Amino acid sequence: MLSRVLGLARDVVVASYFGASGSADAFFVAFKIPNFLRRLFAEGAFSQAFVPVLSEYRSQRDLKAVQQLVNYVAGTLGSVLIAITVLAVVGAPMLTAMFAPGFYMGDTAKFELAAEMLRITFPYLLLISLTAFAGAVLNSYERFAIPAFTPVLLNISLICSAIFLSPLFDPPVLALAWGVMIAGVVQLVFQLPFMARIHLLPRPAWGWKDEGVRRILKLMVPALFGVSVTQINLLLDTVLASFLQTGSVSWLYYSDRLAELPLGVFGIAIATVILPSLSRKHAERTGEQFSSTLNWAMQMVMLIGIPAAVALFVLAEPMLITLFHYGALTERDVMMASMSLRAYSCGLLAFMLIKVLATGYFSRQDTKTPVKIGIQAAVANMVFNLILIGPLAHVGLAAATAMSAFLNAGLLLHGLLKSGVFSWAAGWWSQLLRMLIANLLMGITIFWLMAPGAEWLQMGLWQRIGEMSLLVVTGVLVYVVVMIVCGLRVRHLRHG
């Protein structure tokens, strides 16, 4: 929660200093490329392949074997990432042209600035991937707080860079690129003492032929695509948005960041916590408990995800005005970003469910099935993009991502049901009916209380904060009271 709130503060500062300008577009592309690869390699495929194998080593072998696996993985992962980083820094213009072809074809200055910043930001992939490796080890040993806190350091670094370093650079946006690099170093160093406490501080060694490393690689290669389809879809949005009018990349970025707030706070958190648990239950062959854990996780996601999506849809414009309409961000930017935020909010529940449902496969060391599903969703996303970008511009890109996310989540759920590892627990329909009634009444209430967008633009900072706080608190109270009246009890929220 702290990480995501500070991430929001970071985006407020960036919006205030750089708005939705061409330089902001260039930074978001330069940051998105290593950040996308981080989610693909580190948080996504690597963690989902590494944690089940490490959990198996922990439950079936001694500490020496676990330490050896950690050493080999650290050395092999680090060596591969160093090679990738060197190639990317040398070939930064080619990468920029690949991920933002619209810059290359239509705006030389923006293209050159993006390529220059990419050279600075790309080493972040190496640093943050090793940070994610350390976090995966800590998560496997139930040390969840430290990896969860670590992203706070990135946000602090970028906020300080925008405020204190930007006056020292020409153009000022270069300060953000250096802030990314600094954050990568700080995040990695921060986690090392905590690995030492559990006696698993790595002594990197090349282990390409090690049996454990080979198993992780075998699981990781297909998972590279399967777990990160959402991120691939968002990156495709950036590629296509680079052909649209200046500001489109930034509008999608700001709206995506707001949509990612509940996803990061709850969806990813729940998925992170249940992965080691599901891996152990699968290793111990306790199928009923495996299904029960997935049922609980899905119910928690829906309990939080549906009202979050409703609130983002109804309050899109007031939220963006309250958070970002200061300094360089214009009224038009707010209006354009609010449209794509509403489109993203329609897919929020699916984004969250994907995170949880995918663990049902990865915990069983099945990475091939999500790949097949991911390919179908990615192809569908591109088709939706091409259909919708013409009439809806950047909003069509966000809508296509939401639609393909529901396809992805639906196919993942169907596969778990078909394989027999998951079955619906008793009370699902009554729980869903409660949620629908509560969300309908909550949405009507906050829509009725909400002032028009023009009035929000005239409000001062503290009035905006007060009005938004009143709407959020009222919405939460209506939702909780209706859920309780409809029969929700504390025991329904407990697992086990």
List keywords for this structure.
single chain; 496 residues; mainly alpha; 2 domains
Task: Please explain how this structure is put together.
The longest helix is centred in the N-terminal third of the chain and has 39 residues, at 22-60. The protein has 2 domains: 1-13 and 20-222, no CATH class; 227-428, no CATH class. With 496 residues, the protein is mainly α. Helix 1 runs antiparallel to helix 13 and helix 2 packs antiparallel against helix 12. The two termini are 25 Å apart. It has helices at residues 2-18, 22-60, 63-90, 92-99, 101-106, 108-121, 123-140, 145-149, 151-165, 174-197, 211-226, 229-241, 248-283, 287-314, 316-324, 331-346, 348-362, 368-392, 394-419, 428-449, 453-458, 461-485. The mean pLDDT is 84. The chain is 83% helix and 0% strand. The protein is built from 22 helices and no strands.
